[in-house]
Amino acid sequence: MHEITDSSASDQGTKPLIAWEPSFALGVRDMDETHAEFIDLLNRLDVAPDAIFGRLFTTLYEHTRAHFENEQARMETSSFPAISEHNNEHRRILGQLSQIRKQLDRGRVSFGRAYVREGLPGWFRLHAATMDSALAAHWKRYSATEAAQPRSR
Length: 153
Prior knowledge:
With 153 residues, the chain is mostly helical. It has helices spanning 7-11, 29-47, 50-78, 83-105, 109-148.
């Protein structure tokens, strides 16, 4: 399991905004690694100087977009029953991230900091515990079924 260590927060002697918790581990390696990377980005953003906050937020946006694209492919491949709801949530979050990027482009770093500190940790905890845990459970069942299928020659 990939365990997060937040060097940016620990270097400054501060508590990370969000720490990896055992409940975040969904048992699907690439999902768990992506979630640990997301947490690391949030923690880095929390302590980032204003001068680099916007660039780092763009990195978070791109990471999240790629994360959601990977989940989309997984949901389509496995015929995930809640694909519509899950995709709607992804679109909502990407829309919010896009709006914050526009604020950052106008020099409004405080909007981005507030969203990172007050919005994203709670959203992540809920999303990982509900939507992503359901997807991970579905994926594990799907993978087990696929592995048990005889391969045609």
